[in-house]
Structure formats: structure tokens, C-alpha cells
Amino acid sequence: MNASQLRLLCDALIPLILAACCCAAEQPVNAPFTWSNPIHFDAGPNTSEVRDPCIIREGDTYYLIYTVFPFRNREEKRLADPDQGSSPGIRLYTSRDLQTWTFDRWLVKSSELSENCPYKHRFWAPEIHKMGGKFYLIFTADNWLKNEYNPAGRWGTAGYAFVGVADKITGPYEHITYIAGGACDTSLFEDTDGKTYAIIPRGNVDMQQIDLTQLAHDKVRLLGKPKMVISCDNADINMAARAEYLEGPWLMKQGGRYILLCAGPYSEKKFPDQKGYWVECAYADNIAGPWKKDPRGQIFLGGHIAVFAGPDGRNWFSYRGEKFPQHRGLLCIDPFDIAADGTVQHTAPTLGRQSVK
Q1: Which CATH superfamily, name and number, covers 38-356?
Q2: Quick check: 198 and 185 in contact, CB under 8 A?
Q3: What are phi and psi of 233, to 5 degrees?
Q4: What would the DSSP string read from start to end of 30-49?
Q5: Do 319 and 308 meet the contact criterion of CB atoms below 8 Å apart?
Q6: What is the pTM of this model?
Q7: Which of 19, 22, 306, 335 would staple 54 via disulfide (CB 3.0–4.6 Å)?
Q8: In the chain, what are the domain boundaries?
Q9: pLDDT, tens digit, 9 for 90 and up, residues 131-182
């Protein structure tokens, strides 16, 4: 290229470069992220609330699953309805901004399952956990059609815990297998040493190591004896009120500290000043314990937490709204921090427009 050609090229490029610089200068730096609770979206037919929401982030996309309505126990009069009157399955939604959610696909669909499939009805409290480079879908379900189609030879109000695995968050989830000894709302956790644990609500919340290495052969085992992590009773923090039961556990680890979040209903009749569905919390420096309950007891009014990486680099939780009439039973999200003393600090539950850097 001679000097004349080079000069012509520069003359052509300089306006383009200047325009690009001007556009870049117009883009906001550290623009705030805004959201508004509750988050409304098209959750499809047969839904009156977004129960047990679980958001997980993968790359620049957020994924949401939850308990899809209708959510009920087996009723003889509804067995002729679609899906024998049960929840139709587990629907996956995606979002880039945590506000606009789009239906992506069915992860499990009742109508596509065989008559004798042990996980054909209800589909409670689904969660997705990324562990060891794979994605694990865990949920509670059963089969209403015949008792013998269920793992324990009967269907019941408590349901059964199942887990499946996929190479991608969108599935397909394969080798969906019954967790013998699991319970409704069973959750999963992978520690930094690669060991995996099942967090199991049994009134109180227990923890037990789980072997998922044989899941490709349709085998799952709970190892050792369960250890209670947090109890309904609050005598250990000198609080008279106690939860009716605990559910929806989520275990996380930050800075070497283990944090267990769960939810518990408090009876209006027994504890009118502390009634409602509350988030509770316990902490430990070793997964084997000792575990100590947060001295506040009730952390905030809302429940069934799932923790995900938020748009500002902090931890956020998705939860079912409870405090305000406007978001009771609907999807809510809020950020939280871990204070210097290791406790969860937050502004939840929030209502209406919020903003963070």
C-alpha cells in the first residue's frame, strides 16, 4: 500500500472511529440495575401463584423453575381431568434481565410419561443444581394411578424425592431416580472437596451425604446417618415461638462458612405476633457442625429460598412473597450480603421498584 492509498484509508476510517468513541461515551458506566417485586410473567394456564421458585444463573442467562399449578392432592372427582387433575410437570423459563421471563421448554411433562412412571403427578419444589460440571434436577412427585407404581408401593401426601442429571441446564434430564430416604423439598449441595449432600426436611432439617456417582446406572444412595442442622424449636436462641415445620432448605458456602436457609410457617393461633411463613437461617464453620441458629430466628417474611449469582456480582435469593398483599405467593428477588460476623444481611422483602449499582 502506497502513501496515497494509506491516506485515503485513514480518511475513511477516522469518522468511523470517532463515531464509535462517541457512542461508547454515551453508554452508562456502572448503570443501575432495577427490578420490581413482585415479578409478573406469563406462567401459563392453571396457575394462581409461583410457588417454590428456584432461579439459577448460567453464563449471562437466568433460569427459573417452580411448582406449576394446579397443585393439589389426589381427588377422585378430578382423575378424568388432564394429567389426572395434577400439576402438568416442570416448566423451564429463561431471562436475561430477571424481569422478562420466557417459557423455554418442559423438563418433565406428565402427559408424556408412561402410566407406571413413579414421578407422574404433582411435581413439588423443583430445583436445579450445578455440581461437578453437570446439572441435577431434583423434585418431589408420585403416581396417583396405582399404589404399586410408587417406590414404596403406595402414593401418599408426602410424595417421593427424585433426581436426574443432564450435561446442559436445559436438559434432557436422564436417569431420573428415586432417592430412598429422601423427603419432600429435598435439596442438594456440593462441597469444595467434591462431596455431595442431601438437605432433607423431616419436620426439622437434616443433612446426609449422598452418592450420585452411580446415577447413570439409576442408583442413588444416602450415606451414613442423618445429622440435624436446624430445628423448629427456638429454645436455643431463647425464642418462645417455633415453626410448625421447616421446609425449602438451601445450603451455600461462602468464605469457608456454611449457611443454611430454610422456611417455616408459624401458627397465627399460637403466635399471633410472629405468624406467617418466615425465612430462617443457621451457620457453621464445618459442614459436620456445630451448627448455630441465627439469633434473630425469623430473618424475613417470605420463603422457599434459592440462591443465585445476581447482576451486581452479589448473592441474590429468589423466594415466594408473603409480607405484602400485592406479592403474596408470587415470585420475588432481592440481593443480600454476608456481614463481617458471618450473618446474612438483606433488605428483603422489598415491594415495588428497587435499584442497585
Answers
A1: Glycosyl hydrolase domain; family 43 (2.115.10.20)
A2: no
A3: -70, 140
A4: TPPEEEEESPP----SS-S-
A5: no
A6: 0.90
A7: 306
A8: 38-356
A9: 999 999 999 999 999 999 999 999 887 889 999 999 999 999 999 999 999 9
